[in-house]
Amino acid sequence: MDFLATTKQSLIALKANKMRSLLSVLGIVIGVGAVVMILSLGQGLKGLVTNEMNAFGPNLLDIAVKIPGVSQTQSVASMVQGIQITTFKSKDIKDLKNKQVFPYITAVNGQAIGQEWVVYSNKERRVLVYGCSPDYPLIMKTTKLAAGRFFNDNENDSLAKVAVLGSTLAEKLFNQEDPLGKSVRMKGMNFKVVGVLEPVGGMMSSAGMDMNDFIYVPLEVTLKEILGIDYLTEAHVDVSDQQYVDRAIADISRLLRRNHNITDPDKDDFEIITMAEILKRVEQVSVILNLLLGFLAAISLLVGGIGIMNIMLVSVSERTREIGLRKSLGATSQNILYQFLIESLVITGLGGIIGVIGGMTLSTLIGLVARTQGLPDWPLTISWLAVFGSFMISVLIGLVFGVYPARQAAKKSPMEALRYE
After folding, report:
1. Is the model's pLDDT at 78 over the cut of 50?
2. For the whole model, what pTM was predicted?
3. Is the pLDDT of residue 151 over 50?
């Protein structure tokens, strides 16, 4: 068999039906491009989350409340429905800051979050009130002051009415006016502005929960005079060195069980999660999400393959006389088989190449747009596994879905084909 001659014949046939060939290629382009783009964006999202988690450092421990005797997932679902755990108190935070008992703990942050109207002059905004400990900047290492200072332990313990504003809140309330030293009103009380934070990017500040629009208030005054509660929702502990993480988990667990009168560890009303565990969970969720999205995108490839088979079958029917003529002039069934198979492979191969280029281009453009919209840490990532895999799948689809039409063409009798109208 003259492979070059057969290939040339296939290309001539594709050129003779430009619109049909173009639409066939387009189906594969969309499928391959979707797979490359979705998996690349998924990889970029995973990188963004990982970068943000790594900003806290590997020695951070998260202490979250949970319903005793159930998993954290079940606990979160129950708390969303209105169940509250009220055993985590300010005393737990103070005990954790005892250097004699916990010499390896460098910072502790307790938190309580609510929502209130903040008023200055004739302007008002409903924002999230983030009640936190003075150690908050040591925990949230991306937090930087643009002006002023953060509140201190004395102000927290004495219920001083001071506040630090996020950059967006400061701009909305004060415009070009210097907010330092001025007071904003919240729940009928005046809070003196002692600091303004620099803008913070990342996911939290780009998805409806803008940390730049927070007002940061000492934890104690938040609990007692703003929210009217005596319990915390979460705490964060920073350990001086990785080697102390396991010891810290054991010591903190003993302290909290003693403070909460828990004798059975299975009845803990808290869960301590390390940054490594959080990153592992992110990895697991990312893998599952990428597989799901990749599978959904791959369906379009399958649809494109079915479309190619249908078009090739129509082509076989329309070119019956051509097949008969070629066979009468000496072409073998194998020649005809390979001609139609090559046509299918050219369509899917070309579609795969264009789809890969298009998917990579769109992924890069979306990554650049994400960076300009407050996600500066978004990695401009291309999933090379998706690039190689989707291209090979597109070629395989051309082979699989091209075999049946090619065999149908090869089996035609020259005499019957010539008599076909």
Report:
1. no
2. 0.68
3. yes
> What is the rounded CA–CA span in Å between residue 396 and residue 383?
20
Of the pLDDT bands very low, low, confident and very high (cuts 50, 70, 90), residue 116 is: very high
Distance between CA 370 and CA 365 in Å, rounded?
9
Residue scoring higher pLDDT (325 or 110)? 110
CB atoms within 10 A of CB 398: 29
Q: Are 411 and 315 in contact (CB under 8 A)?
A: no
For the chain, domain boundaries: 3-53+281-419, 86-268
Distance CA 56, CA 380 (A): 22
Exposure string for 41-78, b = 16+ CB within 10 A, e = fewer? bbbbbbbbbbebbeebeebbbbbbbbbeeeeeeebeee
Quickly count: other Cβ atoms within 10 Å of residue 213's Cβ: 20
Half-sphere exposure of 356 (CA within 13 A, CB side): 18
CA distance 186 to 161: 10
- State how far the Cα of 387 lies from the Cα of 39, in Å rounded to an integer: 9
